Amino acid sequence: MTKRIESREGFLEWHEFLLASLERRWRYYEGGVPDLAHRLKLVDLFIKWLSGYDFGEPRFIEALEHNAHCALDSQTLHKMNICYSNALPIARPSMGNIANMRSYLLCQDLIDRFATRFGGTRLLFDYFAWRKGGGS
C-alpha cells in the first residue's frame, strides 16, 4: 500500500478508489449518495484520520502527508481565501461551492501552491485551517 501512494499518480488512483468504494457502499446501505463535495470531504477526512496513527510504517504516513488533499469545508476554504488576500470571488466560501471535480482540484492546487511555498503540504494546511467548533 505504501509504495502505491508514494507517487502522486498512485495516490490519486487510491483516492479515486476510495471515492468509488464510498459511493458503492453508501448507495447499497442508504440508497443514493451524498453530493460530490460531501463525498470528497468524507474521503479526505478518512485519509486525514489515517495520517494521525502509527501503523509501524513511517513511509506510509510520510506518503499521506506529502500527497493527501485538504478536506474542503467552510473553515479550510475561508483560510485559503485569507491566505490569498480574499481573492476568491465568494464572500463566504463553503463546501457547497465545490460543484464539480474541477472546482475541487482547483482549490487543492491553490492550497498546494500556498502550502508548498511555506514548506507545508495540503494535509498540513488542513490541520492548520480547521478548528473544532468552527473558530478562527
What does the model show?
This protein is mainly alpha-helical. The chain has one domain (2-134). The chain has helices at residues 2-6, 8-30, 36-51, 58-67, 74-83, 101-117, 122-129. Helix 2 crosses helix 3 (36-51). The longest helix has 23 residues, at 8-30. It is globular.
Secondary-structure map with pairings?
Blueprint: H1 2-6, H2 8-30, H3 36-51, H4 58-67, H5 74-83, H6 101-117, H7 122-129
Summed up, what is this model?
65% of the residues lie in helices and 0% in strands.
Features:
0% strand; 136 residues; mainly alpha; single chain; 65% helix; globular
User: Helix share of residues?
Assistant: 55-70%
The count of β-strands is 0
Principal-axes geometry comes out as: globular
Largest sheet data: none
Write down the domain tally: 1
- What fraction of the residues are assigned to beta strands by DSSP? under 5%
> What structural class do you assign from the helix and strand content?
mainly alpha
Order of helices and strands: HHHHHHH
Instruction: Name the assembly state.
Output: single chain
Number of helices: 7
Average pLDDT level: 93
Low-confidence runs of at least 5 consecutive residues: none
Task: Work out the radius of gyration.
Answer: 15 Å
In angstroms, what separates the terminal alpha carbons? 36 Å
